[in-house]
Amino acid sequence: MRHFWILFKHELRMLLISPTTYLAGGLFLCLMGFLYWAILREMIASPQDELPTVQFFKSFWIPTFFVVPLLTMRSIAGERSLGTLDTLLTTPTSRIALVMGKFSGAYCFYLLLWLATLGFPLIAENLLNKNNDSSIFLSSAPFFGSFLFIAVSGVLFIAIGIFTSSLTRSQLVAGMLAFTLLFVIIVGGQQLGAISEGGVALPTWIHAAVDYLHIFNHLDDFARGIVDTRPFFYYLSSGLMLLGLSALVIEAKA
Amino acid sequence: MDRDISIRVKNLSRRFGSAWAIKNISFTVARGEIVGFLGPNGAGKSTTMRILSGILSAQSGSAWVGGISVASNPHEVKRRIGYMPENNPLPNDMRVVEYLRFRARLKELPSKKIRDAVENAMETCDLARTARRKIIGTLSKGFRQRVGIADALLGEPEVVIMDEPTIGLDPHQIHSIRELINSLRGRMTVILSSHILPEIERSCDRVVIINRGRVVASGTHKALCEEFMPGNRFCLHFAGKEARLLEALEDKGISGDVVQCDPVSDALQSMQLIVGQSEVTGSQILKALKGAPEISLHSLAPQTPNLEAIFLAATKRSWEETIEPQPATAIA
């Protein structure tokens, strides 16, 4: 545990002094700001069924595709290519503590980036809300639910990045692998869901499995305030499994 | 286990794919000794060092550091070892003092001792006044090596393992690193590998020569000389005939083999001579040649084989012993 905290603090510090982090953060906030602005314009143009906050968090997959690889690709692949992974492994640090330290650093920064997007509804509330009706921009239930979804799904997404980073010594390859896996999990789940909902007769257990893997359905539930344990189990178990595999890969490739 | 033994390696083997990196390696290192690891590229030096430091696991065999088995208690072994890997990898965007503090925390030094341990390591490696707050990425190669060595020395571990600590350094830097290593003698057990043979010769109490994954020689410089380069060697500058000189020596009961004999000028020749009898000294040769008026001796110098000659002889012998006979192929 002591090593985990040392590595976690070190990782956060290294993320804070790395230009790549600020590039990822800047790109993320620009893109999310633009998306929020586009959602507000849509609301002005035509009445919408959903609150801007819900619509905003539905586009979580757009930044995930580039922020997660950028945040995680250097974590283990960078250490391996530089050779500093060897020096870390000569200390009494366990592989699990190393992987968890890397994961926690990247995960905290990921959450910080999403927390920074809270600024958009606050700005909109101050500049645009003339009726003093705070439920339009600052409705607490969708906020809480959507953030919970971001936090829980982030475990899996960041774990994917850490796992792909452990597979190779090239940061570029690690980033591309992370992007591909994220694409398969997010878009693949959605496509399976589309098939399932498209009237194709599927056995019940396949239907249940597709529902289990449909990430956008999870977000819908969370945003409506339905906190189901199944998505929790899916994201946490898959994430922990990938982190365990990363530790094994580091052991095997030493 | 013997208390004076710091490192004991017994029948250690490790395979990468189908090729054996090391096979049945055995050696011991006494406490406080400085031992040099020699071997051609791919001989298995780094693999042995990595197994000793707990990064790699061995396929078979055992290794103990300070009486603790590396395989069964790698964490305890890592607390007792300071390791500087080949090419000395360091994070480029950290300051020297920050990096060493981070390493000290990871090495589980007590919180109260971290500051002192880092200061001592920086003082030993002459970093305290010159490079304390510098960013590692901006340091010269020599200073980077010092940071790597300071990291290995943090907390004064029982065993320090350094893989090529002087590679890529200029003669001044090599000299200062050598002095630094010499200052550790008796305080810590040091294993270092290097391709620079004079370095090993000057710094190490003992040498282990590895070739093709096997220990082909181990011992002090003198013991290795006796094993691989037996006999006394002399370099003679003389005027006269080579055959007559050998006859004059044989008349006095000194039998010698000529390694090389080249003319230096029209009248003068330079000869390298090996005398089989180890009791024969230079003065006996001088006396023997006094009785041969047609030989005019200009100089006589005894020669001690250097580590390079021993290394070449040991690795050549191991090649001859381990090389498998190729089946004869018909040429069409």
Number of structural domains of chain A? 1
Overall mean confidence score, pLDDT of chain A: 84
- Domain count of chain B: the total is 2
Oligomeric organization of the protein chains? heterodimer
CA radius of gyration of chain A: 20 Å
Structural class of the secondary elements of chain A? mainly alpha
What's the architecture of the largest domain in chain B in CATH terms?
3-Layer(aba) Sandwich
What would your notes on this structure say?
The complex is a heterodimer of chains A (254) and B (332). Chain A is built from 13 helices and no strands. Chain A has one domain. In chain A, α9 runs antiparallel to α12 and α10 crosses α11. Helix content of chain A is 80%, strand content 0%. The radius of gyration of chain A is 20 Å and the shape is globular. Chain A has 254 residues and is mostly helical. The C terminus of chain B is likely disordered. Chain B has 11 helices and 14 strands. In chain B, α3 packs across α4, α4 packs across α5 and α8 crosses α11. Helix content of chain B is 35%, strand content 29%. In chain B, the strands form 3 sheets. Chain B has a 6-stranded mixed sheet, with helices on both faces. Chain B is α/β, with parallel strands linked by helices and 332 residues long. Chains A and B meet through α1 and α6 of A and α2 and α3 of B.
